[in-house]
Amino acid sequence: MQASPPTRTSVFTAAVIVAALGYFVDIYDLILFSIVRVSSLHDLGVLDQSEVTNQGLYLINMQMGGMLLGGMLWGILGDKRGRLSVLFGSILLYSLANIANGLVQTIDQYAWLRLIAGIGLAGELGAGITLVSESLPKEKRGYGTMIVATVGVSGAMLGYWVGEKLGWRNAYFVGGGLGLLLLLLRVSVFESGMFRQVQAQASVRRGDFLSLFTNSARLGKYLRVLLIGVPLWFVVGILVTLAPEFGRALGLTGEVTAGLAVFWCYFGLVFGDFFSGTLSQLWHSRNKALKVFLVFCAVLVAIYLFALRGASPTTFYAVCFVLGISVGFWALFVTVAAEQFGTNLRATTATTAPNFARGAVVGLVPAFKSLSSALGFVPGAAVLGGVALLVAFWAVSTLPESYGKDLDYVE
To answer: Is residue 407 one of the residues assigned to a domain?
Structure first.
């Protein structure tokens, strides 16, 4: 592993480029199951519509459960062993798991490989954002993380195209192959200078995940960070992944597919991540930009659930696109997670936070099932989404502003 390079002022550093490409492959693989859910389950013999939904939710839970485990694993390793170790170790694991995913013959095999892939996918974004945040000047790091996210989320669109053109098995092979190719870029990336300085201090405890829970102020700040990311995964994990089911519940004039809904949502996310990151830089405030996007998201969720009854599939996909813009604060959320904590815990928090938010799908799914059984499909989603958005808005409102914060310190 190379020593730290001289300080640079350009946003387009090797760290930013590699982190962006890594997140591109990460998102491709992360969202691929949502795109090929129906076709892959049909091919494996699951034909009943209710079983397609149930087995799909089971596999999503396995993948997201893996991300919960991987978030802790890679976060701790990122602070103990370095940001680069995680950046490329995670790529290797999820690449091999996705290649194996293209060979599955049973639902159980599919489930366990989604779990392993989830563990691998958990490390990429947090390590990349941490490395970029520590490598760029504090006035520019928001632009760096914006580039990472904007490039990264476009991986979902490639996933849709490959899944449609080449079939679900080949789509997994392509994702795994892209990840392995990305490993070749490792030689051009330097380790974080801030991490190197802390690593040289034997008295500093690095990657101590439990220390987040031994200090009430630190714990409160961490929990509020986690809550900010939950609305995005309500939108992606419930509203968009179950687009065919919502389409039928809303009485659309034609069938819609989850793959195309994901495509349009993530196309919107590209613009959302760009706009939210830019606004946070222009306004010199992460929190103000987050509040604006949460309100925007609430409006779009309401439109999705209550204004599309009897609409055409084209209109539905257009709303998915704008809904994607409204939740395009993902990189901003992870940037805040990195900026709120010291160097000895930064990778831990920046990696666990997005994965615990993603992993919230594990809790959102049974909550949605329970609410939809009691209230109905659409009202149940409205209640769940409303709670997630209100809690996230409260969390942002009570979190310290982190724009321009000096990150060279330890907890």
So the answer is: no
